[in-house]
Design a protein that fits this description.
Layout lengths: L1 H30 L10 H20 L2 H8 L7 H26 L8 H7 L3 H6 L4 H30 L6
Helix pairs in contact: 1-2, 1-7, 2-7, 4-7
Length: 168
Amino acid sequence: MAGRAIRVTSRIVFLVCGLVSLFTGVPYVMLRGVDLPVQSEWVIFAVALALVGVFSVTLAVLPRSWMARACKKDRDDEQLFSAPLKVLGGFAAISYLVALVAYLAPPRWNLNSQLMFSLCPMYFIKTTFDPPLVAVFFLLAPMNAAVYGALGLTLGYAWWAFGKRTFG
């Protein structure tokens, strides 16, 4: 029963992280880089967010037997979902903290906007207007965590499918 709960929870988390990643890329596409406060390679961000989002959503709906075959695992192996979920959680936790540091950093630190766009996709909101701290804690930082959680999921399954066979 615990295995089924992990599978269902993993699929829901994969779907939510993938959709958040896709929706986070929308402002970059809508602004087309023109209205961003600094010149950036907005196309790279939008494409990366879209690829990670599509891969994560695909994993959420892909049959378990196909995932097991790609990862060369048994379809009933508990690590098929639990190990990538751990990687997703690690990436999400670290990126949540990065978003908080990006918001709370004093202006004298003079953070590189290009670097911050890649580390925190929602950083352009801070550069265009100053969101309240509550919005950062409960909206922007969790969105950043979901995007990087989807990236962790993508890297975890890619590592498992194409590289090392032991994981988590």
